[in-house]
C-alpha cells in the first residue's frame, strides 16, 4: 500500500548513513544527517573547503549532527575530524560527542574559542569533568580531534595529545557526531570513521594512537602548548569562516562508520541512489516472503504456482508508491528507483547466469521461475501500472511492444484478483478501500527484529535503517487481520536465502542475500569488483521519466443552489474513507463522502452548474440507458487500474475533444447512484490529469429522486 511505500521513502530519504553529495567531501558518513538534524537559527554551507555551521544570534544554542554507529567492533574504531571555531564568545566550542539518547548519556571532547580543550561526560543531569587543557587548541585550521574506541571504552585525543579515557559511560557505543555550541562560525572537514586499524607499512607511529585501557577513567596531566601551525587566526574579529584550510589528512580505508566485515557498495556516494538500491532489494525479497505469509496465515487460495503468485503480489506492492506520488521530489525519485532495482536484480541475475553458460531449462525442477522470466513478470506488472515511469526501463531491456501491450491487462487482472482475495481479511481504510473488516477489527501484529550483524551491510540495516523499516512493516499488521503474530527477523544466516516458516509464522531475512545482490548490482553498474573497487565511470539504472505530482487534499462539497433538500442524503457517511486508489471492478459498493483531486457535488450543486456554465461537460460512467439528458456516456472512464496507466492519455484526449480543446472546462462524472464506484474512479482519473473534476455522488438515482428529467422523459416529450 502507498502508506507502506511513499511514507517509508519519506522517512528514509535522509536516514541512510551514506552522505548527501553536497557535504560528502567534508563530512563523509556524517553528511546525511545535515538535512534532517539542522536546528532553527543555524545554517549549513560549504565555504573555502570547510563544512560550516553558523549561528549568528542564538546564544547558548547547541547544534549536533549524529550518526548511529552502535558498539565498536572488537578490532576498534577511530573517529577523526579537522575542526575550527571562530567566535567572540570565549566559551563557544566545537567538538566530537558520543551520545546515548535512550539513556540520556553523553561524553564530549571540545575545543573552545579561548583555545581550551575540555572533556566531560553527562549522565542525566549529572556532569563529570574529566579534563581541561588550556591553550592546546591552535584555532588556525589545523586542530584535529580523534576518538579511539573499543567495545565499552573510548580515548579522546586532540592534536596528538591524549586528553582522557572513558570506560564507564553508556554514551560509548551509541551515536557519534559533531556538537557546536553558542554564537559563531564553526568549521568541520575530513570527518571519517575507520574500523580498519591495521598499521600501514612504513607509517610513522603517532602519539596517542593506541587503544584505551579497558578499565578506569584517567586524565593525563596537561602538557605545554605545542608549536603553532597554519596561518594564525584567533577568536576575535567577528564570525567569518576560515579563509584557508590546510591539506586534508590521508583518507581512511573505510569511512563508512559501519562495523563488520565484507563489502559495502556506496554507488558513488549518492544518498538517494544508495537507499533506492538497498530498499529496492529488501522490499522485493520481503514482499515476496510476506506474500507467502498471507497465503499461509490467511489460508488463501492459490490456483497457480505459489512462487509466481507471490512474485506478482510483491510487484503490486512495489509499483504502488510510484502510482501515487508525494509532493517531495526526492521521495518520488527514491520510490521509482527502488521499484526499478527491485525488478532489475532479477534481470541482472539472469544475465549473469547466461554469461556463465546457464540456461532457463537448467533448473527446471526448481519451484521458482527462472530469473529472466521473473523479471519479465515483475516489470510487466510495474509497466502496466505506470507505463510513463517504466518506459525507459522497458526500452533499455528490450521489452517488446506486443508484451507491453498486454501489461495493462495483466496489471489490472492481478491487482483486481489480489485485492478481491484479501478484502475479507483487510481493514477498511484510506489505502485499503476494498477492506471488508472494520477499521478497529482485532488481530495479531507483525513484529520486526533486526539483529546485529558481522557484516557492514547487515549493520547498515540494523543501525541505520531498522527503525523506519520496522515501523512500515508493522503497518501490515494494521492493514490485514492476522490470526497470530507474524515475526520478521533480519539476521546473519550463513547462507543466501530468505524464507517464510508456516509452522512458526515467521519470516527470516538474511543479510547475506541482500549483500550478495547489492554487490552484483554495483559490479554491473559501477564497475566495482566484489562491490568495493570503484571504476572511473559508474553507470546507473535507466533514468525514469518525470511524473506529475497531483495534490491529494480532500475538497468538500459546496452548498446547494436553490434546490429543496434531496430525498437521498447525498453526503451520508457510508463508512468508506476517501482514497487515491481506484476501486476495483465490478465497482459496486458503498462510496466515500469525500474525494481526492476532485470536488463532490450534490444534485443542487449540479443543477446550478448546468444553469450557469455553458461549457460544462457531464460524463456518465454507469452504462445505463436512462440517464441525465446532456451527459456523454463513457463507462470506460471509471475503469480500475491506476491513474498512471495507458487509459489516462486516452481519457485526456477524449475529454479535450468534448471540451472543445478547453482545458479550463469543468467536468462532472455521474454514476448509477451512491453505490456506483465507477464515477468516483473517473473523477479521480480526471483530477489526476489536471482537469477541474467534479463527482456527482448521488448519480442517476439522486437525479431521478429529485424529480428531474432523464433521457427517457425527454424522448416521451418528443
SSE map:
Elements: H1 6-12, H2 24-27, H3 34-37, E1 43-47, E2 50-55, E3 62-68, E4 77-86, E5 93-100, E6 105-112, E7 117-123, E8 126-133, E9 144-150, E10 153-158, E11 161-166, E12 175-181, E13 184-194, H4 271-298, H5 306-323, H6 329-355, H7 371-385, H8 387-397, H9 401-422, E14 446-450, H10 456-479, E15 486-491, E16 498-501, E17 506-510, H11 511-526, E18 554-555, E19 595-596, E20 599-601, H12 603-612, E21 617-620, E22 631-633, H13 647-658, E23 666-670, H14 678-688, E24 692-696, H15 699-705, H16 711-717
Parallel strand pairs: 14-15, 15-17, 20-24, 21-22, 21-23, 23-24
Antiparallel strand pairs: 1-2, 2-13, 3-12, 4-9, 4-13, 5-6, 5-12, 6-7, 7-8, 9-10, 10-11, 16-17, 18-19
Helix pairs in contact: 1-10, 4-5, 4-6, 4-11, 5-6, 5-7, 6-7, 7-8, 7-9
Domain Rhodanese: 648-712
Biased composition (Gly residues): 227-239
Signal peptide: 1-21
Amino acid at each position: 500500500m502507498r502508506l507502506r511505500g511513499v511514507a517509508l521513502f519519506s522517512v528514509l530519504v535522509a536516514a541512510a548513513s551514506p552522505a548527501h553529495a553536497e557535504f560528502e567531501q567534508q563530512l563523509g558518513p556524517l553528511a546525511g544527517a545535515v538535512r534532517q538534524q539542522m536546528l532553527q537559527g543555524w545554517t549549513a554551507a560549504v565555504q573555502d573547503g570547510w563544512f560550516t555551521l553558523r549561528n549568528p544570534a542564538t546564544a547558548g544554542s547547541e547544534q549536533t549532527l549524529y550518526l548511529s554507529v552502535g558498539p565498536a567492533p572488537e578490532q576498534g574504531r577511530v573517529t577523526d575530524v579537522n575542526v575550527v571555531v571562530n567566535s567572540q564568545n570565549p566559551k563557544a566550542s566545537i567538538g566530537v560527542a558520543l551520545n546515548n539518547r535512550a539513556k540520556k548519556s553523553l561524553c564530549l571532547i571540545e575545543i573552545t574559542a579561548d583555545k581550551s580543550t575540555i572533556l566531560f561526560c553527562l549522565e542525566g543531569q549529572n556532569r563529570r569533568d574529566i579534563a581541561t587543557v588550556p591553550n592546546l587548541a591552535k584555532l588556525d585550521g589545523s586542530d584535529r580531534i580523534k576518538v579511539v574506541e573499543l567495545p565499552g571504552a573510548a580515548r579522546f585525543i586532540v592534536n596528538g595529545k591524549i586528553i582522557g579515557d572513558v570506560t564507564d559511560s553508556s554514551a560509548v557505543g551509541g551515536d557519534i557526531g559533531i556538537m557546536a555550541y553558542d554564537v559563531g562560525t564553526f568549521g568541520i572537514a575530513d570527518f571519517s570513521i575507520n574500523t580498519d586499524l591495521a598499521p600501514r607499512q612504513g607509517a610513522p607511529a603517532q602519539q596517542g594512537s593506541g587503544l584505551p585501557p579497558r578499565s578506569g577513567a584517567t586524565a593525563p596531566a596537561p602538557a605545554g602548548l605545542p608549536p603553532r601551525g597554519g596561518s594564525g587566526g584567533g577568536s576575535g574579529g567577528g564570525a567569518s569562516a576560515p579563509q584557508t584550510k590546510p591539506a586534508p589528512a590521508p583518507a581512511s580505508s573505510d569511512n563508512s562508520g559501519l562495523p563488520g566485515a565484507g563489502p559495502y557498495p556506496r554507488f558513488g556516494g549518492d544518498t538517494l541512489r544508495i537507499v533506492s538500491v538497498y530498499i529496492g532489494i529488501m522490499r522485493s525479497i520481503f514482499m515476496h516472503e510476506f506474500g507467502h505469509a498471507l497465503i499461509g496465515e490467511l489460508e488463501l487460495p492459490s490456483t497457480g504456482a505459489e512462487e509466481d503468485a507471490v512474485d506478482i503480489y510483491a510487484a503490486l506492492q512495489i509499483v504502488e508508491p510510484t502510482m501515487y506520488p508525494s509532493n517531495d521530489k526526492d521521495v518520488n525519485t527514491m520510490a521509482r528507483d527502488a521499484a526499478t532495482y527491485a525488478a532489475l536484480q532479477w534481470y541482472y541475475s539472469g544475465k549473469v547466469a547466461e554469461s556463465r553458460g546457464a540456461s532457463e531449462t537448467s533448473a527446471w525442477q526448481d519451484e521458482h521461475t527462472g530469473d529472466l522470466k521473473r523479471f519479465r513478470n515483475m516489470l510487466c506488472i510495474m509497466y502496466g501500472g505506470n507505463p510513463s515511469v517504466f518506459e525507459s526501463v522497458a526500452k533499455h531491456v528490450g521489452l517488446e511492444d506486443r508484451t507491453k501491450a498486454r501489461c495493462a491487462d495483466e496489471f489490472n487482472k492481478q491487482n483486481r484478483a489480489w485485492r478481491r482475495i484479501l478484502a475479507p481479511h483487510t481493514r477498511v481504510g484510506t489505502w485499503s478501500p476494498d477492506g471488508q473488516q472494520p477499521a478497529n477489527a482485532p488481530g495479531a501484529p507483525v513484529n520486526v527484529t533486526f539483529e546485529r550483524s558481522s557484516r557492514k551491510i547487515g549493520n547498515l540495516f540494523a543501525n541505520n535503517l531498522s527503525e523506519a523499516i520496522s515501523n512500515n512493516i508493522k503497518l501490515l499488521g494494521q492493514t490485514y487481520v492476522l490470526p497470530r503474530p507474524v515475526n520478521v527477523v533480519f539476521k546473519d544466516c550463513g547462507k543466501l536465502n530468505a524464507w517464510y516458516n508456516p509452522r512458526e509464522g515467521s519470516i527470516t531475512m538474511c543479510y547475506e542475500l541482500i549483500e550478495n545482490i547489492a554487490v552484483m548490482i554495483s559490479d554491473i553498474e559501477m564497475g566495482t569488483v566484489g562491490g568495493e573497487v570503484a571504476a572511473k565511470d559508474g553507470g546507473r539504472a535507466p533514468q525514469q521519466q518525470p511524473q506529475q505530482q497531483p495534490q491529494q487534499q480532500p475538497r468538500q462539497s459546496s452548498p446547494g443552489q436553490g434546490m429543496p433538500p434531496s430525498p437521498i442524503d447525498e453526503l451520508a457517511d457510508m463508512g468508506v474513507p476517501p482514497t487515491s486508489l481506484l476501486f476495483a471492478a465490478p465497482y459496486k459498493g458503498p462510496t466515500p463522502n469525500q474525494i481526492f483531486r476532485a470536488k463532490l457535488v450534490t444534485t443542487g450543486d449540479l443543477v446550478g452548474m448546468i444553469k450557469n456554465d455553458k461549457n460544462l461537460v457531464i460524463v456518465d460512467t454507469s452504462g445505463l440507458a436512462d440517464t441525465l439528458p446532456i451527459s456523454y456516456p463513457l463507462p470506460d472512464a471509471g475503469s480500475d487500474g491506476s491513474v498512471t496507466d495507458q487509459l489516462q492519455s486516452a481519457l485526456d484526449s477524449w475529454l479535450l475533444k468534448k471540451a472543445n480543446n478547453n482545458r479550463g472546462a469543468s467536468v462532472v462524472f455521474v454514476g448509477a447512484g451512491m453505490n456506483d464506484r465507477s464515477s468516483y474512479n473517473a473523477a479521480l482519473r480526471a483530477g489526476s490529469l489536471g482537469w477541474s473534476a467534479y463527482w456527482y455522488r448521488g448519480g442517476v438515482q439522486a437525479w431521478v429522486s429529485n424529480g428531474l428529467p432523464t433521457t427517457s422523459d425527454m424522448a416521451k416529450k418528443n
